[in-house]
Every structure is written in C-alpha cells, then in structure tokens.
Design brief:
This protein has 13 helices and eight strands. By secondary structure, it is an alpha/beta fold. The strands form two sheets. Strands 4-5-6-7-8 form a five-stranded mixed β-sheet. A three-stranded parallel β-sheet has the order 1-2-3, covered by helices on one side. Helix 3 packs parallel to helix 4 and helix 7 packs across helix 8. The N terminus is likely disordered.
C-alpha cells in the first residue's frame, strides 16, 4: 500500500481507539504479505522508587509475563530504579527504554494572546501541573541530574515546612525524620504525611487527612517549588532523550503549551493513556499530526505486579507507536552525532 503509513495517515488518526489498533494491524498485514507484525509495549509505569507499589523486579517480571517486547519505567523525578530494571529486563529478554517522568508547574496565561490585552495590563495566569516524560534519556546527563537534585531538595523543604505548620497549628507532634524514613526507597510526598497524621489520630483516613491538612486550600499546605515544563523538556532534550507531554487530556491549553515547548525540544504527546476516552485520543493524535510530533502511550501503572495484567487490558495502542518512537531516537542520535 504505497504512500500510506500508520504514522502519517490522517484517516488512521481519526478512528476510534480500538478500530485504530485493528486498522494498524490490517495495514501492516497487507504491507508484509500477510505477516502480522505487532509490537507490544508499555511506555509509562512506576516502581517503589517513586510512587508505585512494585519493585523493579516485580514490575519487569509482570511485563514479561504479558509478553511485552519493550517497556519504559518512568518514575517521578528519579532514575534510581533504572539499573535494576535494566538487569531484570536483560534476564527476561525485554527491551528497556530508559525513561523518567518530571513533575512541573506551568504558569498558564488565561488569555490566548496576552499582548492584545495591552502592554500595561497584568496578564492573568493560573498554575497548572504538567508532567513531562523522557525516553531514551542519558541518566547521567548533567542537565537531568540538576533537575532531579533540585526536585529532591524542594520536596524535602515542602514536607518539612508542612510538618512544621501542622504541628504548630494542630499540635499533632509529627516527626519529620520518621516521615522521611516512611518513604523508604520511594519519593517523599504528602501521602507519607497523611499516613503519619492518621497514626497520630489527626484523621480517620488518609483521604480525610488530605482534605483537612494537605490540599492546596488548607492553611497548612505548602506549594512545592518545581521546574517549569520548558526546563524539563530542555533538560530531557539536552540529555539526548525524547521529551513527551504526559496525559495531555488532563490539561487545559494543551495546544498553546505544545507550540511553546516545541521550541525547547518537545517531540511528542502521550495520546494513549488510561484516562483518555477515544475522543480524547483522537484529538491528541490529530494535534500531534498537525505539528509533526509522535504519539506515545502507557498504562501509567502504579500498582502491585499481580494487578498489571488487568491494567494492560485498558491499553489499546497500535504498533506504529513503537516504530515512530524508534525512528525519533535514530533522528536524535543522528543530530547528536552531527553536532559532536
């Protein structure tokens, strides 16, 4: 079928998610003389080294049991699990794509063209969380290390100040060192404070602890310093990686941000995410096609290994996702080689 490829066909991008998967298979079957070529992969998951419940070994083993051929573990703001993931992947014959998910905050303008409001008019903005995925990263790149180190320090500062505020206002006598120890291998965060609050009888449940003490509208909440999405994309790009906006369907102003981040090296959108309806998938595939970007996808799995098979059932992603990601990697390698 000359001239028609799953990567570039506008028709394919506009089909229902499940029909899209079938169409991709049928086209590849036709083009390969009846040989059905499918690549099964998952490009978004987490271990105990951030906020997941599985060890790297448990997660990789669960993926191997589902006959996946390639995965990317994308822990939040850390690559600490990567050596263990790679070792286990090698043992199972599973391709490991080095990955990360960087948490950022975007100061989003509330008007499309701020300059049209007049040069002397302050631009109204809203803070919006944006997660940026990185694939085929160099975990030892200085740009990435700077962001990871900063995020680690900012998390410690945020949690310490929130503990101080809660103790001062509510006299719960929370112990910061014990809360930090509670996080174990994972990334320290508000859930660890919530668990400590429940133990101190400051709330009956973790959910209640969040509502009473830890949400942004609470007087004891402290907003964490964080990198901007522009800085995260640039750091991933500088590391030789491929930056992708995670679960864009959960955001407002996605097209504006996409265009902005392309100047910093953005190369894709995570169209295939468990929170995305077929219509949302269709929209982001079309948006990616409009700007010449790739699409990626994954389960965004945080659970225990025995729950992975069920989570994977919700992921309907055509094989050309892997093909285009691999092609993008080759383009990056070629660009880096020419620049060296």
């Amino acid at each position: 079928m000359p001239g028609l490829s799953p990567a570039g066909s506008g028709i394919l991008y506009r089909l229902d998610a499940r029909i899209l998967l079938l169409a991709s298979c049928l086209i590849q079957t036709f083009e390969t003389g009846g040989l059905l070529l499918m690549t099964v992969l998952d490009l978004h998951m987490h271990t105990v080294y951030s906020d997941g419940a599985s060890t790297p070994e448990e997660l990789v083993s669960a993926c191997a049991a589902q006959n996946l051929s390639a995965i990317a573990v994308t822990d939040h703001d850390t690559v600490s699990s990567l050596p263990y993931v790679q070792a286990c992947g090698e043992a199972h014959g599973l391709e490991i794509i080095p990955g990360i998910e960087i948490n950022t905050v975007w100061d989003r303008p509330l008007v499309d063209n701020p300059k049209s409001e007049g040069s002397n008019t302050p631009v109204k903005t809203a803070l919006q969380e944006v997660h940026v995925l990185g694939y085929f990263i160099n975990p030892n790149a200085s740009a990435l290390i700077r962001i990871m180190d900063s995020h680690y320090r900012w998390r410690l500062e945020q949690i310490a100040e929130m503990v101080d505020r809660i103790n001062h206002k509510h006299r719960l006598f929370l112990d910061f060192d014990a809360i930090q120890e509670r996080s174990g291998l994972g990334t320290l965060g508000r859930p660890h404070i919530a668990q400590a609050i429940v133990e101190k009888k400051g709330a009956y449940t973790v959910s209640e602890a969040f509502t009473r003490y830890l949400k942004p509208n609470c007087p004891t909440y402290v907003r964490r310093k964080t990198a901007t999405p522009h800085e995260a994309v640039e750091a991933i790009h500088e590391s030789g990686g491929i930056p992708v906006i995670a679960h864009p369907g959960e955001m407002e102003g996605i097209e504006k941000l996409t265009v902005e981040l392309m100047d910093y090296g953005l190369r894709g959108l995570e169209a295939y995410h468990r929170s995305h309806s077929p219509g949302v998938i269709e929209f982001h595939c079309s948006l990616a096609e409009k700007y010449g970007l790739i699409v990626t996808g994954g389960t965004d799995f945080h659970g225990t290994g025995d729950a992975y098979a069920k989570a994977l059932e919700r992921l309907h992603m055509p094989s050309f996702v892997y093909e285009r990601l691999s092609a993008e990697r080759k383009n990056r390698q070629h660009s880096l080689f020419k620049a060296s």
